[in-house]
């Protein structure tokens, strides 16, 4: 007749938010009758249960065995908790638990209501253990806070103090493979929990991708799950020096775990992809995979330095899972750039992995909310002291959009008295531009620009929205009459385009002077993403007079995109750096953008991040400078193969001394810029000052060709003076 194994009480701790998943895991390991508390599960079980949790739990932090409870006689405000902990420790014979030649350490945790100096209380509890040994065996054990053979965990409570043996020793999230670290890594047990929640083992995808892999934690935890590798297989534990340790039982569990892993290695694995924009992260991932004992599987893992913009073609016929921890705070910084990163990531996932499963970490719920997932689930966890949100779900297929004019058809509407001529002209313009916009895939363009003197407005399309600018009427015009006419124009615009009020954004464009040109027009901050060529661009149709995208320079930007491959590109007065973005997506070796406005430089970074490109990165491929362009040119010496300059007509910003006047100062500006242009390079110069005259001195020094007609699109043909542009090169020697 076999004896029934003795049951003991055990505590299993975990990160906040993991309790439910951990309970499910413990039940799979054969544990029953679990009591769930915040950050802790309690159950009665055998030593084998405890050992199996130490070996197999991917989610737990610690496995604790309460061995002594010191009940307090009374509870009052004037408590000396430190002395209570000493009394509790000395009242138990610790020589029954471990030998005096063993080293030990104490971890103290106090319930929320308990006020205590943790450092001093820990010291007094240690004194109690040592004095207990002296009374029992006349010898004292040594303290080792870094690698103790025995760890005692003490919970200081209101009515009792509980002294536990920490069977796990070091926290179970430390698997022993993380030799190389990157910024803001996720803990191993949290990564495992996310993979557990994503049902990795059940789905067994053919592709597993972490596009921002950091130190490789998700890749390694996925390998461990799919090869049935126990997280405790090669680490040391806190029960080895315990008198009650059953080594035979433990070695049997360990042998079983080793056999399970060997058997699972015979099963096919997904193709793993581990990408990161940081070469140091790529190296860390490779080293950590080897440290985890998976060096033989490296052939199944593609570990490469890649940005989101640099993904290869994936096999659409294969099932896939994408799990990643984007650089949401410590690794990126700006909150706005973070949102742009999640928007860019979401677009890449929709494009490459429609209907596949993803689990993405965010530091703020607003970031997770932009991810395009069907029926998403949200898991809130604590990564150390930082709350994180995990958004899980199936990736929505990309909606194939067409330019507005491609889908627009002439509308039937009743005659608009007082604005019928305007409505007819607008419809005529749209019909004339429809074929071009459709064939060239033009999403943003000008539909009307003060064609009729009585309707002095500019109408632009941005995606599926309209931006209507009313040019302020002369003072001699009766304001009420002007207002009535503008309202008639808006009615005509809605009738002709078929768009509702919520898709039409209105601004009044008066002559701006000085810093007023940068003053906010609104505080609504409705920003949208529009497409131009390969680029996704953030536009703001409410806050500022300008939207973030100068439509008249579309042809110039697309030209730069075609010419930039392999070249070092410089963009002066870069505004929101859309020309730099086109250059980068066109394969530029590097881009450098310079503007005096912090607002525009931050906007520029968001545009880059939205398109999966890195900013402020150690490799300096894409750099941004908040600086006066004259000063910046004077201070540097780097050479560029392609330069674009589109200066304002006039500027008197308080950030630098003096004023800038494009007619007066273009000679010195171009000379300085040409000093930075490589011998075979090209500089494009443009401006929108209608009375501008190019100085003959520049024409004598360099090869100068006016290319204005080549840079004005069909939507601006009526307004030939919208800007002028030149191509400037060094004269061959």
Key phrases:
Transcription Regulator spoIIAA; rRNA processing; 733 residues; VC0802-like; 4 domains; alpha/beta; seven-stranded mixed beta sheet; RlmL_1st; EC 2.1.1.264; eight-stranded mixed beta sheet; EC 2.1.1.173; elongated
What can you see in these coordinates?
The chain is α/β, with parallel strands linked by helices and 733 residues long. The chain folds into four domains: 8-166, VC0802-like (2-Layer Sandwich); 188-227 and 267-395, Vaccinia Virus protein VP39 (Rossmann fold), CATH 3.40.50; 407-510, Transcription Regulator spoIIAA; 538-733, Rossmann fold, CATH 3.40.50.150. The protein has an eight-stranded mixed beta sheet. Strand 14 and strand 15 form a beta hairpin. Helix 3 (81-90) runs parallel beside helix 4, helix 5 (188-197) crosses helix 7 (217-226) and helix 13 (420-440) crosses helix 14. The radius of gyration is 34 Å and the shape is elongated. The termini are far apart. Mean pLDDT is 91; it is low at 329-333 and 511-524. Specifically methylates the guanine in position 2445 (m2G2445) and the guanine in position 2069 (m7G2069) of 23S rRNA. Residues 49-167 form the THUMP domain. Pfam families: Methyltrans_SAM (PF10672), RlmL_1st (PF22020), THUMP (PF02926), UPF0020 (PF01170). It is found in: Cytoplasm. Its EC number is 2.1.1.173, 2.1.1.264.
